[in-house]
Amino acid sequence: MEKTKTNPTKASEWLNNADILTEALPFMQKYAGLTIVIKYGGNAMSESSSIQSFCEDVALLKQSGLHPVIVHGGGPQIGLMLEKRGIETRFEGGMRITDKKTLEVVELVLCNKVNKEIVTKINKAGGKAVGVSGKDSSMITAKKYKWENGKSDSKEKAIDLGFVGIPISINSKMINDLIKNDFVPVIAPLGISEEGITYNINADTAAGAIAESLKAKRLLILTDVQGVLNSENNLIEEIEKEEVESMIKVGVVSGGMIPKLNTCIHALEKGVAATVIVDGRNKHAVLLELFTEHGAGTLIR
Fold first, then answer.
1. Nearest to residue 54, comparing CAs of 67, 38, 35?
2. Which residues pair with 277 in a beta bridge?
3. Which residues of 125-134 are buried (b: 16+ CB within 10 A; e: fewer)?
4. How far apart are CA 18 and CA 24, in angstroms?
5. Which is the most buried residue in 34, 54, 104, 202, by most CB within 10 A?
6. Can you tell me the distance from the alpha carbon of 298 to that of 239, in angstroms, rounded to the nearest whole number?
């Protein structure tokens, strides 16, 4: 029987793919058995294909011996649902003012829509994900967040953000138990107070607190920008904590990037080995960041 001839171009592509896998192996070994916390922002979920790519990456991380923990946002999706219901959206200092009606929508969208979609897609990609809320078994114990940067007549004043909270403790045992049982925890960033009050928590903040409690090897914050840009609008691939603080001070970075960077700095101070801000819109951004030499965002040490 005559053998089918292999297309030389196709053979070259296979060899290139084999080279890529060989190059990735040392990085897989480096992270094997370690916990990686990934904050998956609502803004990074702009297209169904990008969600699919992200979930495939997570399944592959788990199968490669890493322990990914996902904390997701859902801001744009919450905004759309509020608009459909005729509920006004208001922000102060980048935080959504959350009254009782808004909180109901936040919980509905995060737990019943976004969380379930991510879990389903990870499982379909061959992973074993389980969706939980920060309220479950008091995974995230929270307290009311008091924002005091508002100004009136040149004097600082406190702004009541409603049911917006910050984590005060994390039930890391619950998360570790899921990891030990080979699950990928997918966590909706809601918290509950000691009095039983539900709070909406910024997903960056929640991810940072969870990474700190787990002493994660990496905290990856996936968003809809390249990473941290310098004064000439070029991507900074790696930066020291002290440089970040200086850039915030002089205004090189501003807006929504500031709370992300503050979360990264706080996580570093609490024992997380390194943090990365990654453009989650790029296909396989997580794999590029963890399994290649150059990464795919801004690494903060």
1. 38
2. 221, 298
3. bebebebbbb
4. 10
5. 54
6. 7
